[in-house]
Every structure is written in structure tokens, then in C-alpha cells.
Amino acid sequence: MSTYNPISPVRFALKIRQFAQDSHWVYRYEMGHHGLLNPVPRIVFYAQSAEDAQRWVTQQQSREKGCVTIADSTY
Questions:
Q1: DSSP SS3 for 36
Q2: Over the Cα atoms of the chain, what is R_g?
Q3: pTM of the predicted model, to two decimals?
């Protein structure tokens, strides 16, 4: 951030997906060229509850600049 660019750019996005009652995966999508998210994510965290997954995502957002969350319609 600077005086001329007060908004920090998005560098990556996190998405939580639920696969079973006790299986929540957090995907990380890197920002690619031309401001588009790369279509192939990587799994960066596994949790047994939605609360644990959301807590981890919140910690990442406070630690790293340029992190956003993607809503999942199946979640």
C-alpha cells in the first residue's frame, strides 16, 4: 500500500468446502495473470468442523494481506 495505491491487491482466495459431516477442506486459489483466479486450487487445510475451518481462514486473513474468501453454494 502507498499513498497512490491505498487498496491492497488480491493475491489469493480461500474457499471452504464440506464433503461430509466431519470433513471440511480449505482450498487456496492463487491470483493469475490479468487479475483472474487460477482454475486449479490446492488444499491448504483440513478441519473436522465448519467452525474450525472458518477460524483458520480468519487467522489467514489477519496474517496475510490480499486474502479474500469465496462463498461456496454447496456449503
A1: coil
A2: 14
A3: 0.79
